[in-house]
Specification:
Blueprint (H helix, E strand, L loop, with lengths): L3 E8 L8 H12 L11 E6 L2 E8 L5 E7 L2 E8 L1 H4 L4 H21 L1 E6 L4
Parallel strand pairs: 5-6
Antiparallel strand pairs: 1-6, 2-3, 3-4, 4-5
Helix pairs in contact: 1-3
């Protein structure tokens, strides 16, 4: 089953719209995401300028909640399914990371929560 990127159409609670400089920081911090980051516990994963990439937590169902934040406000949010985290092939893990990066960028553009589901062999 291939990876699927879906807009949940649910707005990010308290979302802020970044200015041009903040948006560049957000895009830079999103690009720093690595597949191994998705399996970490709740923490700040990366920072760039005023933006930071936070893993908010993992639900009981194994869904990763990852967000880009400026201060205490979110500018992008994505939910990564446990099937994505189960990818074991290194080449496909890079594809999983690219999928997560893509949904975070889509969320940054839309102000809604995106999800990444499916898997790669």
């Amino acid at each position: 089953m291939p990876l699927a990127k879906t807009d949940t159409l649910n707005p990010i609670a308290g979302v802020i719209v970044p200015n041009a400089a903040q948006r560049r920081d957000c895009q830079d911090v999103i690009a720093m995401l690595d597949f191994a980051d998705l399996g970490r516990g709740p923490m700040t994963l990366h920072q760039s300028g005023v933006a930071r990439l936070d893993l908010q937590g993992i639900t009981a169902a194994g869904v990763v909640n990852i967000q880009v934040q400026i201060g205490n406000a979110s500018v992008a949010a994505a939910l990564i399914a446990p099937t994505v985290l189960a990818i074991t092939d290194p080449a496909n893990q890079r594809g999983g990371a690219r999928g997560a990066i893509s949904v975070l960028n889509q969320s940054l553009d839309s102000g809604t929560i995106w999800q990444l589901t499916g898997t790669l062999p």
